């Protein structure tokens, strides 16, 4: 999410489990003060400040209960109590992955640490990728890419102009002399570098490639199983379909190459979640199902995909609202901008130049109010969430924006 004039907020969702306080129940926020740099902290779904704003930057907690934060120009990690458990010492730090490893940068070199802060792979590479199921990660050294194992040993020597993660079928896309091919985990080239463009293999065992300006799909042996015939094509998604374009129109094919939804749309997006895909016809957007049936007629100026709470953002007459999968407008178009709902049912919106969060009923969970060039996070009732225990002074002094509630009561 982009930093706005008033507020920098996370794309992470809010949780509605009020009892537990773990990383997944917290949401980071950053407030701006013209006298200070932005400071970031964490709040729960009830807009209670759990970790006071004190960090220059902050990111979401991962499953291991840690989040990377920036303080005094360096990055480290905190737990859900706000305690710094891995000191702020890195130039850049990334989130922990499924292997409980995090990429870090020091002095323009990259390595990995574990969740205890122990350096597992010292920063010595010019760039580094993620470890995959076969235990290998791509790394760049002296301008060439190779692969290391989880001990940092170079098992495939740097020799490629570019290298990607290994797919589940054991092949990784590599580039040599501006052509793409695929290698196995021993570094042997299985599919020669011959393509002008190539994607990683998807779960159905096919990879999208382009040669001589035409798109096709190959299997893990390099055999073309869906011949070149498309102006444009995309990867197969979880429902077994891939969007393609012929003669300027978009449709969908299955993994056999059969056109299951004929090219007829001016624009189209992939199927996500509830098996509906956004399509554009005659300048308006609607939704089709996986059979190609138009289930929500084209009527919107812009739309997004449906999220886990069954709602999608739509734009009509210059304002954003939200519909359900039946096309019913459940939150009327009223926002200048609106983002998708997070997994836990909260969306970030802008209305009348102000920012805040709404739930699936369209009610605000928290708002941002700017007074005297200082941002205040408030509940819909107007009660200050942060700064806490303060009321806005009637007259804003240059260096004294707030007065203490207790002091003002005397």
- Helix-strand makeup class: mainly beta
Please work out how many helical segments DSSP would assign. Answer: 1
- Proportion of beta-strand residues: over 45%
State the share of residues found in helices, binned by percent.
under 10%
**What is the overall shape?**
flat
Order of strands, widest sheet: 37-38-39-40-41-42
Unreliable stretches, pLDDT < 50, 5 or more residues?
1-21, 389-410
Main beta sheet: 6 strands, antiparallel
Mean pLDDT: 84
Distance between the termini: 43 Å
Rg:
25 Å
Would you count the extended β strands for me? 44
User: Assembly type of the shown chains?
Assistant: single chain
Task: Explain how this protein is built.
By secondary structure, the chain is mainly β. Among the domains are: 202-265, Thrombin, subunit H, CATH 2.40.10; 268-344. The protein contains one helix and 44 strands. The strands form eleven sheets. Strands 37-38-39-40-41-42 form a six-stranded antiparallel sheet, with no helix packed on it. The chain has a four-stranded antiparallel sheet with strand order 1-2-3-4, with no helix packed on it. A four-stranded antiparallel sheet has the order 5-6-7-8, with no helix packed on it. The chain starts with 6 loop residues before the first strand and ends with a helix.
């Amino acid at each position: 999410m982009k930093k706005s004039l008033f507020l920098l907020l996370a794309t992470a969702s809010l949780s509605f489990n009020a009892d537990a306080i773990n990383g997944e129940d917290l949401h980071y926020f950053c407030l701006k003060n013209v006298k200070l740099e932005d400071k970031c902290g964490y709040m729960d779904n009830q807009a209670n400040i759990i970790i006071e704003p004190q960090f220059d930057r902050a990111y979401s907690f991962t499953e291991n209960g840690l989040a990377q934060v920036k303080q005094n120009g360096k990055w480290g990690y905190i737990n859900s109590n706000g305690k710094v458990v891995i000191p702020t010492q890195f130039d850049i730090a990334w989130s922990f992955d499924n292997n409980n490893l995090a990429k870090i940068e020091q002095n323009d070199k990259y390595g990995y640490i574990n969740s205890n802060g122990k350096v597992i792979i010292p920063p010595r590479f010019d760039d580094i990728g993620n470890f995959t199921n076969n235990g290998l990660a791509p790394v760049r050294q002296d301008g060439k890419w190779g692969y290391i194992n989880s001990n940092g040993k170079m098992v495939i020597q740097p020799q490629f102009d570019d290298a990607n993660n290994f797919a589940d079928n054991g092949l990784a896309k590599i580039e040599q002399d501006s052509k793409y091919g695929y290698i196995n985990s021993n570094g042997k080239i299985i599919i020669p570098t011959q393509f002008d463009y190539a994607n990683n293999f998807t779960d159905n065992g096919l990879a999208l490639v382009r040669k001589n300006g035409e798109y096709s799909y190959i299997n893990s042996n390099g055999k073309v199983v869906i011949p070149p015939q498309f102006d444009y094509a995309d990867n197969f998604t979880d429902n077994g379909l891939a969007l393609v374009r012929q003669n300027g129109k978009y449709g969908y094919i299955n993994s056999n190459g059969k056109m299951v939804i004929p090219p007829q749309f001016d624009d189209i997006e992939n199927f996500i979640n509830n098996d509906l895909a956004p399509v554009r016809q005659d300048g308006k957007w609607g939704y089709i199902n996986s059979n190609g049936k138009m289930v929500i007629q084209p009527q919107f100026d812009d739309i997004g995909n449906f999220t886990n709470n069954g709602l999608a953002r739509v734009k009509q007459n210059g304002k954003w609202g939200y519909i359900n999968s039946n096309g019913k407008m459940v939150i009327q178009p009223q926002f200048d901008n609106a983002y998708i709902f997070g997994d836990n049912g909260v969306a970030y919106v802008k209305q009348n130049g102000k920012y805040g969060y709404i739930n699936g009923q369209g009610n605000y969970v928290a708002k941002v109010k700017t007074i005297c060039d200082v941002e205040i996070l408030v509940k819909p009732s107007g009660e200050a969430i942060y700064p806490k225990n303060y009321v806005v002074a009637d007259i804003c002094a240059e260096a004294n924006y707030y007065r203490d509630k207790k002091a003002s009561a005397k």
